[in-house]
């Protein structure tokens, strides 16, 4: 029997939990061990969590490494999958290397910008495959690895079990939705839509001050800091346009919303980047240049396009992400089948 370990955040509603569940579905005959690195983080003090996030050290980071090392029972693993391993010490990776035939690192985040971790950079030598969704970081990976022999570039993904059109008791509304962290540029986009008289539904962390400033605006609907799971899918299934706003904290070219929004059946409104123009054709999404262009385009579409026309565009976007295999099942299966880590799967096939 193939033995595999998944090390990552396993809290409900997280994308890492989604990936863990998909991996188990993809390889049901394997004996999977899940190791939840979020437990020490949630049990830590507020100060301890802050130190961990900012400095990648302190008691919370020590507890995460203690948990991982204690969970490894010494028996050999055919595969160890590490999701967002920014808190793992090189010594922990060395121990995993000793019990794991193949080590994969996966992150949907940046590795050398806002999420930079000296621990991760010191541990690069232990991984057989490093999976990134950030094409703009390939050069940084190559510089540290001495080439791209161990690199795997993929896109962000969506969970087809969750991110799908939800049947509601009313037709989609000519409104806009966004769920994500508050940032200055995102304030500008939402503000431009509100100024144009467009109803906007917003959820996510950091929007409280903006929400208080807009509390008298009947077009603004704040849903709170946590819009996850079924609520997330229902939101994007209830409106015609979902914003795929990109972060300006680093040169983001696409995000999870780029794929989740069309998977839920809403029309994706996104900036034109190298990634987004590669993922979608002009007639499958709403491309915009800046907040004012976004507002003008939404007004035009809502004022001139019928529900049938909007539905055709929405369906085209959804079919694109489905046909191109942008769901976690397609993405993770392609990683597991990579020839650089094929030994465990050949072993399974012979049984």
Tell me about this structure.
α11 packs across α14 (307-323). This protein has helices at 15-26, 38-43, 46-55, 59-71, 90-99, 118-122, 138-145, 184-195, 208-213, 229-238, 256-263, 274-279, 291-304, 307-323, 328-336, 343-350, and strands at residues 3-8, 31-36, 79-83, 103-107, 129-132, 151-153, 173-179, 200-203, 220-222, 239-243, 267-271, 286-288. β7 (173-179), α8 (184-195) and β8 form a beta-alpha-beta unit. A 6-stranded parallel beta sheet has the order 2-1-3-4-5-6, sandwiched between helices. The relative contact order is 0.12. The protein is 44% helix and 16% strand. It folds into 2 domains: 3-157 and 327-350, Glycogen Phosphorylase B (Rossmann fold), CATH 3.40.50; 173-323, Rossmann fold, CATH 3.40.50. With 351 residues, the protein is an alpha/beta fold. The termini are close together.
* Count of discrete structural domains: 2
End-to-end separation in angstroms reads 8 Å
Helix content: 40-55%
Gross morphology is: globular
The amount of beta strand, in percent, is 15-25%
Q: Which fold name is given in CATH as the topology of the largest domain?
A: Rossmann fold
What's the CATH H-level superfamily name of the largest domain? Glycogen Phosphorylase B
Strand order of the main beta sheet, please?
Answer: 2-1-3-4-5-6
Query: Helix/strand/pairing class, anyone?
Result: alpha/beta
How many beta strands in the DSSP annotation? 12
